[in-house]
Each structure stands twice: as C-alpha cells, then as structure tokens.
Amino acid sequence: MKTRLLPKALLLLALPTLGLLPASVRAQQALDLESAFKNPPEAARPWVFWYWMNGAVTPAGITADLEAMKEAGIGGAYLMPIKDVENPPAVSPPARQLSPQWWAMVKHSMQEADRLGLKLAMHVSDGFALAGGPWITPELSMQHVVSAQTQVMGGKKLSLTLPQPPRTQGYYRDVAVYAYPTPTGSGVSTATVKPQITSSLTGENLELLATPGNKKGFKTSETGWIQYAFEQPFTCRSIRIRSNGYNYQANRLRVEVSDDGRTFRPVTRLQPPRSGWQDSSAVTHALPATTARFFRFLYDPAGSEPGAEDLDAAKWKQSLKVSEIQLSSEARIHQFEGKNGDVWRVSERSTPVQLPDAQCVPLGKVINLTDKLDANGRLTWTAPPGRWTILRMGHTSTGQVNTTGGGGRGLECDKFNPAAVSMQFDKWFGEAVRQGGPELAARVLKGFHVDSWECGSQNWSANFPAEFKQRRGYDLLPWLPVMAGVPLANADQSERVLFDVRQTIAELVNDKFYVTLRDLAHAKGCTFSAEAIAPTMVSDGLLHYQHADVPMGEFWLRSPTHDKPNDMLDAVSGAHIYGKNIVQAEAFTELKLAWDEHPGMLKALQDRNYALGVNRMVYHVFVHNPWLDRKPGMTLSGIGLFFQRDQTWWKPGRAWVDYARRCQALLQLGSPVVDVAVFTGEETPRRAILPNRLVNDLPGIMGPQAVAAEQKRLANAGLPMREQPEKVSASANMETADMLVDPLHGYAYDSFNKDALLRLAKVENGRIALPGGANYGLLVVPGALKMSPDSSAMSLEVATKLEELVQEGATVLLNRQPNHSPGLQGFPNADKQVRQLTATLNQTTNSPASASTTAGGAATGSAAKGRVLREPYQADSFDALGFTRDVVASTTSGQRARGIAWTHRTDTQFDLYFISNQLDSARTINLSLRVAGRQPELWDAVTGEIRPATDWKIENGRTLLPLHLDRNGSVFVVFREPATPPSAHDDLNALAMQPVQTLGGPWQVQFDSKMRGPARPVAFAKLTDWSQHSDATIRHYSGTATYTQTFRWQPPKQLKQQKGKLAGTPSTRVYLDLGTVANLAEVRVNGQPCGIAWTPPYRLDITPALKKGNNQIEISVTNTWANRLIGDQALPADQRPTWTPAPLPAADKPLLPAGLLGPVTIGLGNVPSFSFKVD
Question: What's the distance, Cα to Cα, between the start and end of the chain in Å?
Fold first, then answer.
C-alpha cells in the first residue's frame, strides 16, 4: 500500500513528535524495515527474460533452467520465443511456435514453475516486437494514410479511373476523394523536367538521383556538391529527400542557387527532423519559392549534431547516402511525413515564408468527390472550368510484422482497433492459458507484458475520423488533404490540424491499445508490464504508463549506440506521476557479448539505475539451453548479458542476486522524494526530458561547467568518434546515460506530462501534489527544446491550469512566452485567451525579495498565493523557493564530489537514501542530507550488515556525516529512530581493518577436469594469475578452482576464547581480505560457509568459523568464460570442451586476469555493538 508523501516542511515539523510514539510502535516499524532487508519479499526478487531460440526447446532443458533460476533467487521469467526453426533444426523434434510440440513445452514450463514456486509472464506476441500474428489480416493490421493525385482540365464531364494510392499486403480502402484548383507549380518537378546532374564528388548512380522511386543509392564520405542544371529557370518550392534507410546528412545539405552556374547565392541549410531508429521514410523540405537554373546541394558534415535517441542517424560515422533528391515547384507542408503521424518525428512548423497564403489551397475551394467514385475507382464528375487536382486518399496496411517471431509471426494488429487488439491477446496469451489449463495458468502465468515498441507508427484506422471529431471537436475530413502534405487555408491552420492529428494518434494508442490490454490482462488475474513506446510510435511517451501496473524501461551494457537513457526516464517519471510503486528495467542488454562480464563489473551500472528510480531488475537475458551437455550453450546470437545456468559464475553469482533483492526490497518502500517537475510540453511525439536539455532553463542549478560541457558537446568539433563495443564506431559526443548521475546537483526531478498536469495536479502546502504520492516544489515549463521547438505555443487548457496552480500556491518557472494555441480547436478565440492568461501569469509574484535576483526575477501585480518565475533560473540553489538541496556530497577538500548517484525515499516512519560511488576508486565523501531528528544508520546490501553511523551531527535541519565508499561501492543511509542527544559523534563511519596475519603460500588448487583443467591439485607457491601460468590448461581455464590451505590462528589479546570457537567482543570482528579477485570467491573456514566476495573490497567476516590453532580455509574462485573460449579457438572443433553459436573472442585476444591474486590477509575490525548481519 502506498503512503502519501508528506511535504518536506511538514515532515520536518512532525519529526520531533516521533519520540512521543510508544517504544513498542517504533520497534515494530523498525522491525518491518529490517524484515524487508533481511528477508526480501517476493516482489523484490529480480526476474529474467527467458528466450527460447529457433524452436530449440526440450523438457530437460526447461527443467534445468527453472531449477537454476530457483537456486539463484530469481522470482520469475518472461517466457518469450524468438525466431523460427532453423534448417536443419537444432533439436528434433523442434518446438515451432503454435505447434502441438510448442504448446506441450509451454505447459511443461508452467508445471515445473508451479513445482518450484516460480512465476511466469508472457509477451503479447511471438518474439519481442511487438503485437502481431498470422491471424491478423491486412484489414486488421496497422493502417496508414496513402494518396495519389491526378490533374485534369475542367469545363466538362469527366469519367476516368483514378490512379490507386500505394497498397500493401494487397489491401487498400478509400477514405475520400477531393478536387481543388491546381496550385501554381503543381505537377512540375524533376520527375517531369529533367536536370543535368553533375558533382564534385565521386560515386555511382549519381545520374539517378532525380528518378522517382530510384533504389540505387549514391554515397560518399567526401565533402563536395551535387548540382542540378536546368535548361530554363526552375522554381523550387519543396525538396523531397529519400535514402535507402534514413540518412542524417542528406537532410542537412546546404542549398545554393545560381543563374549562370558561376556565382551562387545561399538559399538555406536543410534542417533534419528529430527522428528515431525505425525511420526510413522520405523527408519533404519546404523552401521559399526559389527560381534559378542551377541548384547545388553542398555536403559538409562539419557542425553536425552528435546523435541521440531522438536523432538516431547522427550517432554513426557520418557520410552522405541518398537515392533521391526531387525538386518540386509545388508547395508542400514542411516535413509533413512526420507531422501526419506516419513516422516518429518532430519538426519545425511551416512558416508563411515557406508557404505563403497564395500557395495554400483555400478551404472553401476544396470539393469532396467521394460519392462520385465507384467501387472500381472510376470517378464521374462534371468539373468546373479550369485546371483541377484530384486527390484520392485512402488507407492501407503499414506492412509491419512482429519481426522477431517465428511460427507466430504475422502482421501487426491495428493499435486503434480494440477488436484487433483483443484478437491478438486471445490468439497468443489467451491460448497459452487454455493450453496450460486455466487453474495451472492462474497459479503460474501471473504476468502479461508489452515490450519496447519496434513496429513503427500508424496514423489511421476505420474509427479515426469519428474519434478525431469526438476528441478535437471538429470534422477532420474537410482538412484531410493536409495529411498528404497539401497546405490548406494557410501555413498556420494546416499546422494546427496536423498537431491535432498527432494528439489524436497519441490518445488512441493509449486508449485503444494499452487500455484494452490492461483490461484483458487483469481479467486473467495478471500483472501488466509495459516498456517504452518512443521513439517509434507517435505518442506521449509517459501516457501509457498510467495503465501499466509495472512501468518498464531498458538500459544497455557497454553499448552506447543502443542504450536507452530516455526510455529509463520515461518509465521512472511515468511511474512517479501515475503512482506506480514498481519500476522495472530490462537490465544489461548488450550489443556484443564479450564473455568477460561478471557481477563486479555490472554493479556500478546497476546502482546508477537504482539511483535513477528503478527498483526491480529483469536481467537480459537467460536463453534457454536445450542441451545439458553443451556449454556455454545457446545465446541470443551473442546479444545480451549471458545470465543463465551455464554461466561459469552462476552459482556464486547468487550473492549478486541477493544484493539486488536487498536493494530492491528497500527501494520498493515508501515514496520517492522529488522536488522538481519538468513539463514535457504539448508537441507530439513527446517524452521525458533528458537533463542536459535543461541547461538553458536551469543554468544556475546545473552549473557553468555543465552549461559549457553541453555547448561543447553540441558543437561536436572535429566529429570525434569512439569504438564501443569492439568494431562498433559512433559519435564520441552522442548523448549517453552518464549524464543521469545527479544532474541537478542534489535535487531530483521528474518529467511531467500534459495528462498529469491537467487531470491529476493540485496544490497542497505550496507544492504540486499528485494522487500517487509524488509532490514537487517547482514546476519548470522549459523554453524551446529539440523535441518542443515552438516555444510560443501553449493550449488554452494548459495555460488555464498553470494559472489555477499558481493561484493556489504553486511555483512555476515559465521560460517561454506563449501567444497561441497549437491546435485548431477553439481557434482563433483560444489564441486570444492564451495571450490573456500569459499576461496574467507574467504579473504573478509572491516570492521572497531575494527571489527577483537569485531566482531569475518575477513580475509584480497579482495577489496569487503562488509565483511565476520568468527567464532562465540563474541561482545555484532553490533555497529562495523554500527547499534546499536534498543531498550535498562533497570531497574532503570541500569540492563537489562528482560521480555520486543517489535516490531518496520516505515514509512517515523513515527516510532512506541510496548512495552509490560511480567511480572505480575508493573515496571518502562528506554527506549533507535534508533530514533531521533521526539517527542515521548504514545498511550494506552487499554484506547484509546494518550498523549505526558513529560520526554524524545535525546542523541547520540537516544531517551531516562522512562516508567511506569502496570502488563502485554503495550504501543505504537509513533514518528510522529518533536522534539521541547530543546528536554529535566523532567515531569513524567506515570499517578500519587492522591486518594481523597474512596467508602466503603454498596453496593447493583443485581445477575442474571437465573444463580441461588439471585433474590433480596444483601447488601454487604464491598467488599468481592463471592467465600467466606456463600450463596451457590453467592459462586457458574458465570455471571454478578451489584454493586450500591450513593455517594457525592465535587470537590477539583483545579477543577471547569461548568453548573452542572464537567469539569477538561486541565491537570486534575478524575479517578475511582477499585482496584482488578475478572474479568471484566463495570462502569456507573449517567447512563453515563464510560468504561470497564478488565486489570490492572482497572482504568477508570469518569470526564465527575461526578457532584457536589449526584452521582449514577453502577459497573457490570463479572467472569468466573468456579465457577458455579464446583457448578453444586454437583447438580442433572435436577437442573443444565448449560449444556456443555465439561469436567467439578472437584467438589472439589477450587473456584476462583470473584466479585469486591476493594478498590474502586476516584482520580485525571494530563495529558498533548493535550491528547485525543478514544470514
């Protein structure tokens, strides 16, 4: 049950009263928190994506997989088959999706999961992208608008068969037919007036660039120009650029013209739209009417913006790739292909300079001829005199399929049609329930999932006109030609209609697709999880999370070109604004499996996402291995983290899973503390706003270094490249997830969408509060952004809501000057009202005297309870607004400590902070936390230890304490008990270990002969790296080897002996420090398990296991698969102990350090007497 987050001021006022609570109540509250940490609940268990590849599935493999998951502490698996059966099949008989053998395997999985107490979830379709199948016919598939135009002479009765617009999958249906007076230049283009094409560049197929539909691309990496020369002056009003796959550089060419071919004058530089990774459509650029004989298109990548999730094509090594440059004398709406919702894009509005009124078709002159078209496409019409353009508009399938499916592969269902969506659910997920048996499925199949959207966009369905009219308040059909790029009335009104089209699309995908699936999932008793919808489907990237029980994003490992920081922000912000407690992440997806992955290298990335707001990991990927005798076994073609039963470190890796369970148990308690809400705007598509894009709105908070760094990044001087992973080269300046670490320097922020603003937001105690518990001290309405370029637009409903919030006491930073509403609804009166409300907001202030200077200033003249801040926020804190930094982390020299990721959660009974050192070096920092009245405790999720902080104090309503963090170390700082006077202490908060004994050689080391290790124990006179050993069987060994040694222990004087076993004094413990380990080490002393060391400082408490005199120690060390796979490259295939279809490391790749490297020492450490450790 969620607890409402109290405003911080009220929470602080309430803190002194905690001491009045009965001791028994406080003890119970503390016990509940401890219980979650010591025995994490089921909800805290991580899950896995369980991929079944190519129909290669066996009952024995299923049982082994599920038993391994259970052993490791996994909570459940997303069962997802991938791809079709290979020829020949990898196993016989294969389990092709939808076949009886397949359903038998699904049922066996349910039965085994039931036996083991595991849960399963399934996707909405075969594969992971997205919702299609063989039962989806073309008319039930995703639809988009298509058109074809014909020009005729009027003044007579016409009877002609109109050219049919493009059809896909043999399916097409008419929507409407229009006639309008042919605009100037219509029908004149380089398709009809052939230019002579020359170039300073070398390359093939240059002469085909003006040929419509050309598929032979021209490409070059040279800087230079392409020239079109016409015999007579040519007037260009639009340019259509098409590549075989979207090309960033083709859409940023400089355009110059000349009358004589010698002296050229500039016209424009084409501006590429913001676009996602599935964009391969043409781009039509509107130009001011330009007449010349020579047109040059200059290619020079200098000044190119580095890539981002919403500028995907700019990520890669830049070159010019183009298959068509079509010049037209006909005016077209600027970049209409994205504005009509057919593809995920954001573009600048068309301007009156590009589209003068004279070039726009008057709405009153558009004639609807739909009733004059017969079923065979023949138009009969008596046309008035003059030249007419006939526009036939209809819809067809987008042709998208669930690409990664196999036997269940087929067309994607219509996302605006609940009947098609319901069919998809029933034919796949519903059939799984029937095949498994309703009773069994009800116990086991507890999750229903929609993965990340990978099937493009759609902009039509049979219900679209009716839905549009209901939602927007006017009929779309008179305006429909704008969806084909035809400007009607004027540039402004054409843009407004297209804005309304995109908004309707965003609402329909939410209301018809996600709502339908949510209801169907809940009817089956299933939890509904969903990943991101952007940047492929035109949408509000946060809106659908209101319907997901478990919002979900994804983050990638060492794969910056494919990483999804915006996906993560979408999911986290969506969860916060809609009050969803669990935020899942598809975790550690990797473009190229390197076989060197291990928990210690993954921890910092994991912690960064915990700090971002994630509180449950779904590991990507556990691939089903149908064989019990092939290792490493099956993979997802070498993609994803190899997290499955045949991973070398699978068994000791349970310690890493335990770490995740403890972290997630705590991070699922209470509510997130977030001070700042950033409005995502009204442009569609839209999504959460990345922090680097706020430097122009919050320059003081982000600091001059961040502002300068972003300016330098965007300048992208020299177009630097970097390679990560190996042989994947991309822009070194592209946006990466590194920017997500504490970007507002001690303040957390959420993105806040239009729905949350209008429907959920209200003001409580001066903060904007949402029903789910989130509340914010400041709402930022940014100025122009890459994804929201029109800073002068604001709808009447948004302006009205902002004014209402300010009147009720909210603080709003309004870094824009709205003067018009973006849609056609209410036009033109809505524009006037927006301007009036903007004027009212500009006159609203109730801020402290200092705010006008430190907070960027505010106008005067209103008696509202709240305040409006104008212009960028220049102050370096929000102190003047009434809330200080939540977290201040500084170095011992007083500088800001960089690389500290954090999150804060609260309840009426506790506050907890998760603090993560993102640096690969140990450090001591000074923390100042916005909590007072409670005593800080340090909870270590690696060891399970809880101990009080012993060096801390309270000053000015804040708790100050020094904190030592190991390399990539983390800790929870928990406040639950009232502070005990005098609330000031001077001991260390870190464990200071005093070495008392070193365990040198010799060591006896037993390798596993099944992995080609030596059969007999090997003596190591001293600890050395396996990869440097003279014996090739050791040098290339991968797996577990056990070090044994007998040593004598004489307890130091400060320890006492009890019945032959060593017991420390209440504050003294004995620790084993392993020094350096590659990569995990499980320790036993005298046969008693002492734990698993998998991350620095590789230190374990061995106090209970030690005895006076002789002691036997066993250290089982496990490395990764890399060295064995490298070594196998030199062996004949029949002599290799390994098998996998994944790409292998090169035979000459350097071996990785492996084994116990030491030094191994025993030491004493003092800890507070009430500390305890989770068993």
Answer: 28
Domain boundary among 308, 330, 352: 330
Cβ-proximal residues to 251 (8 Å cutoff; 6+ apart), any chain: 241, 270, 271, 272, 273, 283, 285
Q: Alpha-carbon distance 641 to 630, whole Å?
A: 18
Mean pLDDT of the chain, nearest integer: 94
Residue 662 lies in a domain: no
Q: What is the DSSP string of 406-442?
A: STT--BBB-TT-HHHHHHHHIIIIIHHHHHH-HHHHH
* Closest to 172 in 3D by CA, of 394, 480, 410: 394
Structural domain contains residue 522: no
pLDDT at 1027: 98
Give yes or no for a contact between 961 and 927, defined as CB atoms under 8 angstroms apart: yes
Q: Is residue 644 part of a domain?
A: no
Pair 954, 979: CB distance under 8 Å: yes
Q: b vs e for 1027-1054, b when ≥16 Cβ sit within 10 Å of the residue's Cβ?
A: bebeeebbbbbbbbbbbebebebebeee
Query: CA–CA separation, 775 vs 920, rounded Å?
Result: 35
Q: How many CA atoms lie within 13 A of 862 on its CB side?
A: 24
pLDDT tens, residue by residue, 643-682: 999 999 999 999 999 999 999 999 999 999 999 999 999 9
Three-state DSSP state, 19: helix
CA 1086, CA 1047: separation in Å to the nearest integer?
Answer: 11
Preceding peptide of 1070 cis, ω within 30°: no
Q: Is residue 739 part of a domain?
A: no
Domain of residue 300: give its range. Answer: 196-330
Q: H/E/C letters for each residue in 110-179?
A: HHHHHHHCCEEEEECCCCCCCCECCCCCHHHECEEEEEEEEEEECCEEEEEECCCCCCECCECEEEEEEE
Q: Which residue has the tokens 């379709």?
A: 125
Last residue of one domain, picked from the residues 783, 810, 840: 840
Using one digit for the tens of pLDDT, what is the confidence trace for 90-139? Answer: 999 999 999 999 999 999 999 999 999 999 999 999 999 899 999 999 99
CATH of the domain at 277: 2.60.120.260
Confidence category of residue 502, pLDDT binned at 50, 70, 90: very high
Distances (CA, A) of 236 to 190, 231, 233, 266, 1073: 10, 14, 10, 14, 75
Rg of the Cα atoms in the chain: 33
Torsion sign (Cα): 708, 710, 715, 716: positive
Number of domains in the chain: 3
Give percent of the chain with pLDDT exceeding 90.
Answer: 90
User: In the predicted model, is pLDDT for residue 327 greater than 70?
Assistant: yes
